[in-house]
C-alpha cells in the first residue's frame, strides 16, 4: 500500500464533501426557494455562521488539494534522497489535516447547535421567534409540533434536513482528516510506500 495513494483518495473524497457542504449551507438561506426571508433577517442566526461554506467547505479544500498532490510529489529532500523528501511531505500533510479537523469540527458544532435551537419562524402569536429554543432539541423527536411554525412553510423540515446533512458530512470530513493524520505519520515514519520496490516506483 502506498500512503500517498491513500492520501489522494482522501483528498478526492474531501473535495466532493466540501462541495455538498457549500451547497447545503447556501440552500439554508432560501427556505422554499424564496429570498425574502434572508433579506428580512428571518433566518436562524446559525445560518449566518457559514459553517458549511467556510468550515465544511473552503477550509476543507486546502487540505484536500494538498492530499491529492502527495502521490505525485517528486520532492527531493535531505541529501537529495527522494524518499526522504516524500517523508517530509507526508509529515506536512498532518498540518493540513489539522486545518481540516478544525474546519469540519466547526461545521459539526454549528450544525448541532442549529438543530438544537431550531429555526426562526412566524408563530401563532404573529411574532418571529425561535419557537423550539427551549425544547433542547426535543422538537426533533416530535414532528407534530413542527406546525407551530407558520412561516416560512415547512421551514422546520428544511432546517432539520440541511443542518443534518452538514452535521453528517462534517463528521465524515473529521474522520477522514483524522485518518490522514495517522496515514501521514505512518507515511513519514515508514516511508512514502511500504515496500522497497514501491519506494523506487513512487
UniProtKB/TrEMBL annotation:
| Cellular component, GO, one term | membrane
Keyword Membrane in record? yes
Residue span of the signal peptide, if any? none
* Keywords noted in UniProt: Membrane, Transmembrane, Transmembrane helix
| Chief site of localization | membrane
- UniProt KW Membrane keyword: yes
Taxonomy, superkingdom? Eukaryota
> Which Pfam families does this UniProt record tie to the protein?
L6_membrane
Location in the cell reads:
Membrane
Q: Which InterPro entries match?
A: L6_membrane
Q: Where is the chain membrane-spanning?
A: 12-31, 46-70, 91-116, 160-179
Q: How does it sit in the membrane?
A: Multi-pass membrane protein
Similarity section:
Belongs to the L6 tetraspanin family.
Its recorded name reads Transmembrane 4 L6 family member 1 isoform X2
Species source reads: Lipotes vexillifer
Give the gene that encodes this protein: TM4SF1
Amino acid at each position: 500500500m502506498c500512503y500517498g495513494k491513500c492520501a489522494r483518495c482522501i483528498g478526492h473524497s474531501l473535495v466532493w464533501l466540501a462541495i455538498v457542504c457549500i451547497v447545503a449551507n447556501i440552500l439554508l438561506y432560501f427556505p422554499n426557494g424564496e429570498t425574502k426571508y434572508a433579506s428580512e433577517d428571518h433566518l436562524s442566526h446559525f445560518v449566518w455562521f457559514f459553517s458549511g461554506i467556510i468550515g465544511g467547505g473552503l477550509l476543507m479544500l486546502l487540505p484536500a488539494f494538498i492530499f491529492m498532490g502527495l502521490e505525485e510529489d517528486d520532492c527531493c529532500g535531505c541529501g537529495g534522497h527522494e524518499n526522504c523528501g516524500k517523508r517530509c511531505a507526508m509529515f506536512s500533510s498532518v498540518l493540513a489535516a489539522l486545518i481540516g479537523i478544525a474546519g469540519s469540527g466547526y461545521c459539526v458544532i454549528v450544525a448541532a447547535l442549529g438543530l438544537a435551537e431550531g429555526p426562526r419562524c412566524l408563530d401563532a402569536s404573529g411574532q418571529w421567534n425561535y419557537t423550539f429554543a427551549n425544547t433542547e432539541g426535543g422538537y426533533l423527536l416530535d414532528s407534530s409540533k413542527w406546525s407551530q411554525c407558520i412561516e416560512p412553510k415547512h421551514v422546520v423540515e428544511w432546517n432539520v434536513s440541511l443542518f443534518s446533512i452538514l452535521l453528517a458530512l462534517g463528521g465524515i470530513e473529521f474522520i477522514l482528516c483524522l485518518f490522514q493524520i495517522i496515514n501521514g505519520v505512518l507515511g513519514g515514519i515508514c516511508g512514502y510506500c511500504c515496500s522497497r520496490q514501491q519506494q523506487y516506483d513512487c
